[in-house]
Amino acid sequence: MVIEDRDEAATVSVLEGEGFQAVPMWFTTPVHTVWRHEDGRVVDLHVVVLDDDGSGIYGDEGVYPADGLTGRGRIGGDDVRCISATAQVEFHRGYELRDQDRHDVGLLHAELGVPLPPEYR
Length: 121
Fold this sequence. Notes:
This protein is α+β, with helices and mostly antiparallel strands. The protein has 3 helices and 8 strands. The mean pLDDT is 93.
């Protein structure tokens, strides 16, 4: 989940109110946390600051380009804004790949036809 920094406190309050707990991970930073519920649900939270052109500045970790923040999806039957599939694949590059990364990118390819980058072939 990508949220604006101005919404972080409210988002964390909702997560905690729903029974999610922060789980420190090797990649945890002030702008990237993971929240788990005892029923197995996981929220990977990315906090951005929008710049003048609408891109999301992601701490020292990078930038979500404005055109990558224009996706649409569904959660539990509700329409939601999301990161475009192409941007999601790009953010799954440039580091040592894990099984989870291969799974996620494979689904984006299979379900939405996003081309596989060379390291995923």
